[in-house]
Amino acid sequence: MLNIALLSRGPGLYSTQSLFRAARKRGHYVRVVDHGQCHLVIEKGLPQVIYEGSRLVGMDAVIPRIGASVTDYGAAVIRQFELMDIYTSTRSEALIMARDKLKCLQILSAGGIDVPRTAIAGSPEAVPRLIDLLGGAPIVVKLLESTHGVGVVLAESRNTAISVVEAFTKLGQPVLLQEFIEEAAGADIRAFVVGKRVVASMLRQAQEGEFRSNLHRGATANVEPLTPQEEKTVLDAARLMNLDIAGVDILRSKRGPLVMEVNASPGLEGIETTTGVDIAGAIIENLERGVEKFVGRRKWQ
Question: Quick check: 147 pLDDT over 70?
Answer without folding.
Answer: no
